Amino acid sequence: MKKINFIGRYAAFFLIVTFFSGIVTSCTEKDSDIVKPKTITDVILQNSEFSTLREIILANDLSDALRTENLTLFAPNDAAFKNSNITSAKINSMTKDSARAFVFKHIIGQNQTYETLKTQKYSTLVKGDSIIITNRTTDPTTLILNGLANVITKNVNADNGTIQVINKPLVVVK
Q1: Residues 89, 66 within the same domain
Q2: Cα separations (Å) of 91 from 43, 98, 108, 122, 127?
Q3: 48 and 12 co-located in one domain
Q4: Under the phi-then-psi rule, with left for phi > 0, alpha for psi from -120 to 50, and beta for the rest, what region is 170?
Q5: Please, what is the angle between helix 96-104 and helix 51-59, to 10°?
Q6: pLDDT, position 139
Q7: How do the residues of the chain divide into helix, strand and coil, expressed in percent and rounded to 5?
Q8: How many domains does the chain have?
Q9: Same domain, yes or no: 115 and 70
Q10: Tell me, what's the pLDDT at 29?
Q11: In the beta sheet, which residues pair with residue 125?
Q12: Sign of torsion, CA 137 75 65 86?
């Protein structure tokens, strides 16, 4: 009888240790299980509405520039580019500095929601350039950017800022 009792204690101890080690190892988070936040770059690269802007960003090595903190991107969607007769090929045929300036003229270095934007000048990422925001005279709740564009989709949130989708590019391209 003593031999069976001795084996039973070891078996019970083994089961308890196995049970607790199973609990401990199953509760650890793996990096692959964690949902990573999307930056402005990630949103642009994954959203089919921004295929023209995506091509411009990728061709001009701007992915990292849009991963910095506290940005507001006024992003023209594909329809905005099409209605303005601007293609990614036209932008990418510019010098690299001009193409980068085209994108940077759509970005302010502050995270602004639509509700916090005021009628004023906001400096863009291009030194000496700004976006002028005014109200539409017929509808004071509608904001006009540089006298050209309206925000058509408000407050697309990203981990490092906000995207305001606009109906026209803020830069005239010839």
Answers
A1: yes
A2: 21, 8, 20, 24, 20
A3: no
A4: alpha
A5: 130
A6: 82
A7: 40, 20, 35
A8: 2
A9: yes
A10: 61
A11: none
A12: negative
- Give me the half-sphere count of Cα atoms (radius 13 Å) on the Cβ side of residue 30: 4
pLDDT at 130: 95
Q: Strand, helix or coil at 59?
A: helix
How many residues can be counted in the chain?
A: 174
19 plus 75 within the same structural domain: no
Tell me which residues of the chain have a pLDDT lower than 50: none
In angstroms, the CA 50 to CA 75 distance is 8
* pLDDT score of 4: 56
Closest CA to 169 of 43, 63, 76: 76
For residue range 123-140, what is the model confidence (pLDDT) as tens digits? Answer: 999 999 999 999 887 887
> Would residue 96 count as lying in a domain?
yes
What does the pLDDT read at residue 6? 61
Distance CA 47, CA 70 (A): 20
Residues in Cβ contact with 90 at an 8 Å cutoff, skipping those fewer than 6 apart:
173
pLDDT of residue 30: 61
Q: How confident is the model at residue 122, as a pLDDT? A: 96
Residue 15, phi-psi category: left (phi > 0), alpha (psi -120 to 50), beta (remainder):
alpha
Give residue 68's domain range. Answer: 33-166
